[in-house]
Design brief:
By secondary structure, the chain is mainly alpha-helical. It is built from eight helices and two strands, in the order ααααββαααα. The protein has one domain. Helix 1 packs across helix 2, helix 6 packs across helix 8 and helix 7 packs across helix 8.
């Protein structure tokens, strides 16, 4: 379904149209499942969170956004990315506590998002680094969150943040370099 139709359904759903919500639900669920699968395929093989559980939790949190005024598809999936990030980080922190530090959750900043090589990063460390980056440059942090956790393209990220594609690309390159330097000694 084209982005414009999803945006129309989101607006109708935000306005209280339950029929639009019913039409939107399978589309949202399908997109969230793709996003969850992409994130979880980068996790360790012994990761206990399954994509269906991640999708269900994210979906429940999204539909619970009673007063959300969805601007468009990019805005919706930006919020989805934030929710997925929070679920993954919370799960990683809980697992880390249970294992007393053994086998921290590892997440790859993948080549689909223009990151060099197959570097693996601790999800908790990534979350902490993004929190630090947000203090230094909130927009760069948002770009990483939208590109990495929400799976948005440069164009969709630019649309969601109301920035030019060139600015988003510059923020993405700069933030990626900063994160790699923070997370991987000697990088």
């Amino acid at each position: 379904m084209p982005s414009r139709e999803i945006t129309t359904l989101l607006h109708q759903w935000s306005g209280g149209d339950s029929i639009a919500g019913d039409e939107l639900a399978p589309l949202i669920y399908s997109e969230l499942h793709k996003l969850a699968h992409r994130h979880l395929r980068r996790e360790k093989a012994n990761h206990t969170l399954q994509s269906t559980a991640l999708v269900n939790e994210a979906y429940l949190r999204l539909v619970d956004q009673k007063r959300a005024q969805w601007q468009d598809r990019a805005h919706f999936f930006a919020i989805s990315g934030q929710i997925i990030r929070r679920i993954l980080v919370d799960h990683a922190r809980a697992s880390h506590r249970e294992k007393r530090g053994a086998g921290a959750t590892v997440l790859a900043l993948d080549e689909e998002r223009d990151l060099p090589g197959q570097r693996s990063l601790d999800l908790i460390a990534l979350d902490d680094a993004l929190t630090d980056l947000k203090k230094l440059n909130p927009q760069q942090s948002q770009v990483v969150e939208l590109r990495f956790f929400a799976g948005l393209s440069i164009e969709e990220t630019a649309e969601a943040l109301h920035l030019s594609k060139a600015t988003v690309n510059r923020y993405w390159v700069t933030a990626r370099a900063w994160l790699l330097r923070e997370l991987i000694p000697g990088a």
